[in-house]
Amino acid sequence: MALTKATSRTFSVLVPALAATLGLATLTAPAAQAEDQPQSWTVSQPLASGQALTATVALNASGELSLGVRRGSTTVLEPAPVGLVTSQADLSTGLRPTGRSDKLVEETYQATTGKRLKRSTSMNETRLSFTGAHDTPIDLVVRVSDDGVAYRYDLPTTTSGTVSQEKSAFQLPANATAWLTKYGVNHEEHHTETTAVNAATGSFGYPALFHVQDSYVLLSESGVNGSYAGSQLAHTSGSNRYTLKLSDDDVDINGPLTTPWRAAIVGDLASVTESTFTDDIAPASRISDTSWIKPGKVAWSWLAGGHSVQASLAAQQSFVDYSAQHGWEYSLVDDGWKGQTWMPDLVRYGAQRGVKIMAWIHWTDLDTEAERDTVLTQMNEWGVSGLKIDFMDSESQSRFQWYDEILKATAEHKLMVNFHGSTIPNGIQRTWPHVITLEAVRGAEYGGSHSLTDLTTNPFTRNVVGSMDYTPMDFQQGGHTNSEAAELALSVVYESGFQNLAGTLSAYRARPEVERFLEQVPTVWNDSKLVSGLPGQGATFARRSANRWFLGSISSGGAHTEQVPLGFLGGGEWLVETVRDGSDGLVRESHTVKRSDTLSVPVPANGGFVAIACHAKPGQTTCDKAVDGLPPASFTLTPDKVEIEPGATAEVKGRFTVDSQVPVTDVSITADAPAGWTITGTGTSADSLAEGEALTPTWTITAPADATVNTGTDVSLTATYSVERKGKDATLTKESKLRLFVPEPGVDYVSALPFAAESNGWGPVERDTSNGENSRGDGSPMQIAGDRYYKGLGTHASSSVSVQLDGRYTRFITQVGVDDEVGSNGAVAFEVVADGKVIATTPVLTGDDQALTIDVDVTSAQQLTLRVTDGGNGINHDHADWANARLVLAG
After folding, report:
1. How far is CA 361 from CA 43, 245, 355, 432, in A?
2. Can you give the residue ranges of the Glycosyl hydrolase family 98 putative carbohydrate-binding module domain (predicted)?
3. DSSP class of residue 558?
4. CA distance 646 to 703
5. CB contact at 8 A, 825 and 874
């Protein structure tokens, strides 16, 4: 992996008052200045104007530093302490100035995602050098641009020891309005509106927003890596000072130390919201060839059924089909796929349809170098395009050292990254541009009843500093506080290079205007403008992609008419298509406007709208561009589960259709018969199928005469067909699974009997699958210690299932264990009860144990109860299988 640097120019600049007597690079304090007298230095933005930013660093008589910031004549940050305390020296007091150097930093760079792809910045940088205790040198480096002030510390000669405290602080005017989030390691807390002085005692996370007279100040950090730790803002109620608190009590120093930037984005609300300052001050990109980095829309199925949907190849293929139909670039398989063997099949399935696959993984599976090499190599071999890495939940130095390693490793393997349970963006997307988005927000997974304060404050806080994976479009979740048009608007208002869309397929299909807009809206932007809004009240954004503008507007409060000035448009006439809330669903309307006009859109309480604007041309009726989607196919089997005794036969019918307005050709369906089985079919091919036509084959299936009872197999039936795409024939496949099972004569399977009573620790008891989520039938195939079972009960501790026997059976037989889907987790014990008497128990079994066989006499028993209890460590992951649970009939 080659290294690259941003295009930049650096100039040494003289301090005018000293230029006649001091050298270019280092400007020392005048000899006549006594060391114990207060001193100060100022740094202003380049090309300073009336509202220019100026940082003032002051050194008092005790050798203590402070830094304050003015915007024009307004003090936006009052003087507050700066300094470090290390194990070798207290560098927050007794400091003596030894020099100053100044330079102009001008850089241009290309981003892969964000508010705008082409970036440029111009900053004045001043390095103030001091010595402290034991003649230990420390440099304070200050940068000022037209939209921000940042500082950091350099310890050029301190190569070991620890940083025990950073004395950095920000002091706001006491009456400044504040929008804050309580600090949490995953940054998923609610926003609170308060004032700088009245905020509660405790720690607050970045970014923190303050309103000071006609200015806004957003506090954050940038350039955090494994040489340091993350930080938070500690506050005591009644104080207007926010002190920086490190995530570690002691931060190890390993070589000359450069700390992260302490950053304040400053300006009017639009300037702060549109700023890229935390990226501008971050280290330049470490990746020279970014051609493989491709943001896009992602089908995210987690809120369509949780783990069970992630464990189902058929379900994942349906999301791939939908993505292919609507031009979405990716589909993400979340937590639940581990233990399945079909990931390479899904990648191939997606590749046929132009849809790439992303995969979820827990960060601990990538903890060591050996694990990273194994897992990332496997992902490359499968053809996975990127990873959603989850649950880091720490901002310690050791965790940032892990970030350093995983960022380098994923870049080397050309795997894009979406971090969840993570730190905030801190310039990481500039340094490592394959990081397409990060969570660090209270997202849609928390349920439909989202805080309107959060929804309308995120654009001005969290999303300012980098891409934000909120996962919008969860229309299927009940209790939404915002309107449907406002939810749709989040696809524009919230910037995320991977826009992980959280709806179910049925929810999308019930909303054609949602489908149409999501087909059109991109995830990367050439420009972004805040048109109007206030934190906690609403936001209207205009974002440009090529020659089209996309508008998104959200609001909190009563019904009103949103007035949108269109000055961001170019000259001439423009066609604007809006989608807003109507009395009976979403409504699309067209307008012809000029940049001097104001667009008026009625919105309901807590409502919003979206719009697309394009240059108006004679006869043009829409701004939509053609979407090169593939028609979805359907292939069903009736029945799809068949029980066949040894040597017997069964019949299965199929139905294959393609929802295409153009004929599909060369249709054929093949069956992959297991060893010893025979499958013969009729009507399995067609030269072409027109719209509405179906292929309806029939298969006769014969089991081997020596088939082993209580075993099963899955048969793949694959339809192959061709459809025109981009002027060429694309050959596609659609697979359907047929489950075959050889039953044992003279038994009844418990899963086929009615339950007299049932209780379960999570969701319902499942028949013939492992424990699923909250709905019946959403479990996965049962598997214990690598062995697959086709009959049984899937339960979750603590559980109890009762069935009536009425004296009809002589024995109860089953294999029990923890399902493989939870890995080595889980700890349970099994208990069999007949007519209230315990007749069999097991020791505690975990995910590392083999299945145990239970075979007990139930002669004359009237009722059988199967219980699972927790193994003593809590019920998390306690997925317990009663595999092949069966009752031997009497006589």
Report:
1. 45, 30, 20, 19
2. 744-889
3. S
4. 5
5. no
Which among 445, 433, 427, 454 has a CA at the least distance from the CA of 503?
445
**If we measure between CA atoms, which residue out of 149, 195, 158 comes closest to residue 54?**
149
Q: Which residues contact 857 (CB under 8 A, 6 or more apart)?
A: 810, 811, 839
Beta bridge partners of 263: 150, 220
Residues 101 and 142 in one domain: yes
* Residue with token string 């069964």: 650
Q: Interior CA angle at 522 toward 613 and 414, to 5°?
A: 160
Co-location of 800 and 669 in the same domain:
no
Distance of CA 168 to the CA centre of its chain: 31
Task: Tell me how far apart the alpha carbons of residues 207 and 184 are, in angstroms, rounded to a whole number.
Answer: 12
Q: 450 is written with which tokens?
A: 């989202």
Q: What is the mean pLDDT of residues 405-414?
A: 99
Q: Tokens 């019918």 appear where?
A: 653
User: How many residues does the structure list for the chain?
Assistant: 891
Residue 685, beta-bridge partner list: 668
- Non-local (6+) Cβ contacts of 603 within 8 A are 483, 485, 486, 553, 555, 559, 560, 561, 562, 580, 581, 609
**DSSP of 481-519:** SS-HHHHHHHHHHS--SEEEE---HHHHHT-HHHHHHHH
Q: Which of 717, 731, 642 is nearest to 681 (CA)?
A: 717
Q: Which of 280, 314, 344 is the last residue of a domain?
A: 280
Tell whether 110 and 225 lie within a shared domain.
Answer: yes
Q: Which of 231, 256, 280 is the last residue of a domain?
A: 280
Same domain for 778 and 691? no
| Cα(768)–Cα(761) distance, integer angstroms | 18
Please report the sign of the dihedral spanned by the C-alpha atoms of residue 824, residue 825, residue 826, residue 827. positive
Task: With cut-offs at 50, 70 and 90, classify the pLDDT of residue 10.
Answer: very low
pLDDT digits (tens, 9 = 90+) for 507-555: 999 999 999 999 999 999 999 999 999 999 999 999 999 999 999 999 9
Looking at residue 848, which CATH number applies to its domain?
2.60.120.1060
Closest to 856 measured CA to CA, from 842, 867, 840: 840
Residue 27: is its pLDDT beyond 80?
Answer: no
- What DSSP character marks residue 468? B
User: Exactly one of 154, 404, 445, 773 is catalytic; which is it?
Assistant: 445
Confidence of residue 629 (pLDDT cuts 50, 70, 90): confident
Question: If you count DSSP H runs as helices and E runs as strands, how many of each does the chain have, helices first?
Answer: 12, 61
Distance CA 8, CA 774 (A): 56
Which residues make Cβ contacts (< 8 Å) with residue 159, sequence separation at least 6?
Answer: 253, 254, 255, 256
Contacts of 675 (CB under 8 A, 6+ apart): none
The CATH number of the domain where 218 resides is what?
2.70.98.10
pLDDT band at 691 (very low <50, low <70, confident <90, very high): confident
d(CA 662, CA 656): 16
Please tell me the total count of domains within the chain.
3
**Are 214 and 94 found together in one domain?**
yes
Domain for residue 680, yes or no? yes
Task: Decide if 390 is catalytic.
Answer: yes
Tell me: the pLDDT tens digits for 820-832? 988 888 999 999 9
Active site residue 778: no
In a domain, 493, yes or no: no
Which residues constitute the domain of residue 242?
38-280
